[in-house]
Design goal:
289 residues, 71% helix, 0% strand
């Protein structure tokens, strides 16, 4: 019987996809398909959404999809940095390290896939706010242990909760659907790996360390959620940026969608002691609590 550490590595080899082959990058971009599931649009359910034409809604969701993809790409790069630093001094013959390296290979393919998707939709390369981008450099260089894996897991699950809807929605652009499907299928095992690492590394943590882990994890989740849809998407989609940003900020439908979809993530974080104290305020500000 194989050691438990062997199975994930072999599973990765079997289930990895090549986006350059799996995605039909030459397929036309239909004019009547949304960039993402309309119900995930930050303006869905607002007065402004009701006033928009179908063409405006489609254009907005394309920009929103490009924003989500660019933030996903940014975080994939941070994840690769963190994983490589984590295994740098470890035994390269160990199955743990080999699985981590397999995951890095997957994340590299995902980064190219997200970049190509934005390019194919002919959308701007949004990325996070410049200040958050700079913070990412610090995070990628210094975060370690349970917090690093908890942050990775949380960010991946945030993307996962959106993309599970995108990939099943026939109203959505084929490129978005296929990219979402590949990412969801491959991230399922990555999330399991990260959850196991979080549980193992947080076990027996002191009270003081737990407070730091809670706050750091919540801060990463907060900045990822705040970066997901850049405000520039509204102006680029031809909308009044001030009105659109104001209505998006107060959109109860979007808040409820995030809270409902993120419930499993929050349940897990709570189960390992990573929800409590000041961290709750950050989760509430991005509607996960």
């Amino acid at each position: 019987m194989l050691h438990s550490g062997v199975r994930p590595n072999l599973s990765s080899a079997r289930k990895s996809y090549d986006p350059m082959v799996e995605v039909d990058w030459k397929a036309p971009i239909p004019d009547d398909k949304f960039g993402l599931t309309p119900e995930w649009s930050t303006l869905y359910g607002t007065a402004l959404w009701d006033e928009m034409t179908e063409e405006q809604k489609i254009e907005l969701t394309k920009h929103e999809a490009a924003s989500v993809s660019s933030v996903g790409l940014w975080f994939e790069i941070l994840l690769m940095q963190m994983l490589l630093r984590d295994v740098y001094g470890r035994d390269k013959h160990s199955r743990h390290v080999q699985f981590a390296l397999t995951e890095v290979a997957d994340e590299c393919r995902h980064s190219v896939m997200f970049a190509r998707a934005g390019e194919r939709l002919n959308m701007p390369s949004y990325g996070p706010h410049p200040a958050i981008h700079k913070l990412g450099r610090i995070w990628g260089g210094f975060f370690r242990g349970a917090n690093a894996y908890a942050s990775v897991m949380a960010a991946e699950e945030i993307l996962d909760m959106m993309q599970r809807d995108f990939m099943k929605d026939e109203r959505v652009q084929p490129v978005t659907r296929t990219v979402s499907k590949i990412h969801v299928l491959e991230e399922a095992r990555h999330i399991r790996f990260a959850r196991e690492e979080v549980g193992r590394r947080i076990e027996g943590a002191s009270w003081a360390r737990l407070q730091i882990e809670r706050l750091n994890t919540a801060a990463v989740v907060y900045f990822v959620m705040k970066s997901m849809i850049r405000k520039e998407v509204y102006e680029n989609a031809g909308l009044d940026p001030k009105r659109a940003a104001a209505e998006a900020k107060n959109n109860q439908h979007y808040k409820d969608t995030v809270r409902t979809s993120g419930s499993k993530l929050m349940q897990f974080l709570d189960s390992v002691g990573l929800v409590g104290g000041p961290s709750k305020r950050l989760y509430k500000r991005v509607h996960l609590l």
